[in-house]
Amino acid sequence: MPLQRAKLTSDKALTEITSALRKSHKLKDADDDDFEVRSQSELISTFSSVTNMLTILLAAIASISLVVGGIGIMNIMFVSVTERTREIGLRMAIGGRE
């Protein structure tokens, strides 16, 4: 209930501000407004959409970073296993045990 009352109060305030600005700008009824009046709910929705877009962008950057890091670690492990394979093969060839 308080939310509806706040919405009605906000709408009423917007209407009063618009009419006061139209009078001070000396606009006729047929003229278009030469100003914009924005409410808090519009600002909140704008900030919310910007925040969501930044979250998606940061998630994309983080996932790309994880993939690149994983590939780097995989390459390092592959090189170390390849080096050890040669060493183990050489030891087995000369009769070494496990």
How would you concisely characterize the structure shown here?
With 98 residues, the chain is mainly alpha-helical.
Describe the structure using short key phrases.
rod-shaped, mainly alpha
Provide structural commentary.
The protein is mostly helical. The protein is built from two helices and no strands. It has helices at 2-24, 40-93. It starts with a helix and ends in a 5-residue tail after the last helix.
Distance between the termini: 77 Å
The overall average pLDDT, rounded, is: 86
Please give the number of β-strands: 0
User: How much helical structure, as a percent, in the residues?
Assistant: over 70%
Question: Radius of gyration in whole Å, from Cα?
Answer: 34 Å
The coarse overall form would be rod-shaped
Give the SSE order as H and E letters. Answer: HH
Given the helix and strand composition, which structural class is it? mainly alpha
